[in-house]
Specification:
InterPro entries: DIOX_N, IPNS-like_FE2OG_OXY, IPNS-like_sf, Oxoglu/Fe-dep_dioxygenase_dom, Plant_2OG-oxidoreductases. One of its GO terms (molecular function) is oxidoreductase activity. With about 375 residues, the protein is α+β, with helices and mostly antiparallel strands. It has a single domain (about 10-20, about 45-355), classed as Sandwich (Jelly Rolls), CATH 2.60.120. It has twelve helices and 16 strands. The strands form four sheets. It has an eight-stranded mixed beta sheet with strand order 1-2-12-9-14-7-6-5. A four-stranded antiparallel beta sheet has the order 8-13-10-11. The chain has a two-stranded antiparallel sheet with strand order 3-4. β3 (about 110) and β4 (about 120) form a beta hairpin. The chain starts with 9 loop residues before the first helix and ends with a helix. Bound molecules: 2-oxoglutaric acid and fe (ii) ion. 2-oxoglutaric acid (AKG) binds near residues 211, 241, 303 and 305.
Length: about 375
């Protein structure tokens, strides 16, 4: 069974020029307009040259450490992907979202279920999962695909138009994986560990998922979320931003801070720390909460995020080397697959997976003795 709003594409809603109430945030839900007043003049986000990390340059490692401590994300340079290549992949993404609805529906994330009905599943094209009437919906459509390992691809969800989209995505995911591994390796070194410290825990067949998100023009961007506040379901995410239209904001020290577009045809590529790294590092590295504001009436926006995750059978837990008397384990142990699946339940509710699955140790139920004594 799918919720009746599951098949409602935001792009179609946007074409009507109305803003249905399903998308409108209640005042207490932190509307972007209210938050904008509290927003600070955007300090520029930190930049890390990953080619220098590869050379084990100590000053670059210091920059990485400081970026992770203060922001949990940073802009990457030295990744080897050219602006024309990044432009081509965003162009192909726009090309896909501009196809007629029927063409895109071939890749729909609402599929036939065994019971003869229809069901939502994460891969494919459509909106994020809708569970209830109360859920305030985000102003975006998305195409979500597993890209690695290669044999896990479900090619029936891979668009054949624009014709270059699939090849560009494969190349992006491979180049992005190099960036992700370099960063995860350097993160281990930052904490004084061997290069393979985190990479081994994640596994060789590190699954990765690509999310192309399309934010159509919005009549009232002050009343909606393009994408609600969340942390990523990843060890690290490699995120390519629209080169023309901003909207990404990061929660830093309690205020929302804009991540500006660079302009001049340059493309902003970010690395974002995800929940799984927060757990493995026992919060030495924290996943930043971020959200996206919807574009105005005259604009549209696309982004491409690739989430690099641990192999599903790996155990996700704070590394024992990062636990001691002063810093006890902050998270409970669970299977990577359980955590990854929990993400979708949590996301529909607008909660962090770590909170929804009660992974934080201080969220553990009180011991039986304390309960019976009450
Ligand atoms: O569209 C963006 O800039 C960010 C997207 C994002 O946060 C995500 O896909 O997880
Ligand atoms: Fe995200």
């Amino acid at each position: 069974m799918v919720h009746q709003a599951q098949g409602l594409l935001v792009q179609e809603v946007a074409a009507d020029g109305e803003l249905p109430s399903r998308y409108v945030l209640k005042e207490q839900q932190g509307r972007p307009a209210a938050a904008a007043a509290a927003q600070r003049a955007a300090p520029s986000i930190p930049t890390v040259d990953v080619s220098r990390l590869a050379d084990a340059d100590p000053s670059e490692a210091d920059k990485l450490r400081s970026a992770l401590d203060s922001w949990g994300l940073f802009a990457v340079t030295g990744h080897g992907m050219t602006d024309p290549f990044l432009d081509a992949i965003l162009g192909a993404a726009r090309g896909f979202f501009h196809l007629p609805t029927e063409a895109k529906q071939e890749y729909s994330n609402v599929v036939d279920a065994d019971d003869g009905g229809r069901k939502f599943q994460p891969e494919g094209y459509g909106v994020d999962r809708v569970d209830t009437d109360e859920q305030v919906l985000d102003w975006c459509d998305r195409l979500y695909l597993q890209v690695r390992p290669d044999d896990a691809r479900q090619l029936r969800f891979w668009p054949t138009h624009p014709p270059d989209l699939a090849e560009l995505l494969k190349e992006f995911s491979v180049e992005g994986e190099k960036v992700a591994k370099l960063v995860v390796t350097a993160m281990a070194r930052c904490l004084g560990f061997e290069d393979g410290f985190f990479v081994d825990k994640v596994g060789d067949r590190m699954p990765s998922y690509a999310r192309f998100t399309y934010y159509p023009p919005c009549p009232r961007p002050d009343l909606v979320h393009g994408l609600k506040p969340h942390t990523d379901n990843s060890v690290v995410t490699v995120l390519l931003l629209d080169d023309q239209v901003g909207g990404l904001q990061v929660l830093k020290d309690g205020s929302w801070v804009d991540v500006p577009v660079l302009g001049d045809g340059r493309h902003q590529l970010l690395v974002v720390v995800g929940d799984e790294m927060e757990i493995m590092s026992n919060a030495a590295f924290r996943a930043p909460v971020h959200r996206v504001m919807a574009p105005g009436e005259e604009a549209e926006r696309v982004s491409l995020a690739v989430f690099y995750q641990p192999e599903p059978d790996k155990v996700l837990e704070p590394s024992p080397e990062l636990i001691d008397g002063d810093r006890p384990a902050m998270y409970k142990k669970l299977q990577a697959k359980v955590f990854a699946d929990g993400f979708w339940d949590a996301f529909a509710l607008g909660e962090r997976t770590i909170d929804f699955l009660k992974v934080k140790v201080d969220a553990v139920d009180p011991p039986a003795a304390a309960v019976s004594g009450a």
